[in-house]
């Protein structure tokens, strides 16, 4: 399979305060929560084409060497080009370097995508206390959401 030309024009970098309006708009368009974005801004990476934010993802730090992968979103016009996988890979590398041992995530629509990246679906009852303490577990993600896990 030939590389997607979109990725050659896409740069992944840490998010900055200048990205906040575009980041909020991207997550809103993807119907993802924006409540914690300002507090987690330094934990986001963004995918940019020229100066436009076209994708984003973050890891919410949790105790015990655990992180919660969240807010993975790509602009509709750029989906299917490998940007989401590149964002997740960038965060996994960063978190490994920070000593994070495992990432967890909740998804309603992308379990197949994340399984392709090595995440495994697990029963919500087996979530560790650090994940149970997050707002995503407690109230933001419905019980029907798939909980997934990947050791780093």
Order of helices and strands: HEHHEEEHEHEHHE
Strand order of the largest sheet: 1-2-3-4-5-7-6
Strand portion: 25-35%
Please compute the radius of gyration using only Cα atoms: 15 Å
Description of the molecule:
This protein has 152 residues and is an alpha+beta fold. The chain has one domain (5-151): Aminopeptidase (3-Layer(aba) Sandwich). The protein contains seven helices and seven strands; from the N terminus they run αβααβββαβαβααβ.
Concise overview:
The protein has 152 residues and is of the alpha+beta class.
Key features of this structure:
152 residues, alpha+beta, Aminopeptidase, seven-stranded mixed beta sheet, globular, disordered N terminus
Reconstruct the topology from this structure:
Elements (H helix, E strand, L loop, with lengths): L4 H4 L1 E5 L5 H10 L7 H4 L3 E6 L2 E11 L3 E9 L8 H16 L3 E6 L3 H6 L3 E3 L6 H4 L2 H6 L5 E6 L1
Parallel strand pairs: 4-5
Antiparallel strand pairs: 1-2, 2-3, 3-4, 5-7, 6-7
């Amino acid at each position: 399979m030939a590389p997607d030309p979109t990725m050659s024009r896409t740069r992944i970098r840490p998010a900055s305060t200048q990205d906040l309006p575009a980041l909020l708009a991207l997550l809103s368009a993807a119907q993802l929560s924006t409540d914690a974005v300002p507090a987690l801004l330094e934990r986001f990476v963004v995918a940019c084409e020229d100066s436009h934010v076209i994708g984003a993802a973050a890891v919410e730090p949790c105790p015990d060497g655990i992180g919660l992968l969240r807010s993975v979103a790509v602009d509709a016009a750029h989906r299917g080009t490998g940007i989401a996988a590149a964002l997740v890979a960038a965060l996994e590398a960063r978190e490994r370097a920070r000593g994070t041992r495992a990432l967890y995530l909740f998804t309603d629509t992308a379990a197949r995508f994340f399984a392709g990246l090595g995440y495994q679906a697990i029963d919500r009852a087996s979530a560790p206390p650090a994940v149970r303490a997050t707002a995503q577990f407690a109230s933001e993600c419905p019980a029907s959401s798939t909980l997934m896990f990947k050791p780093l």
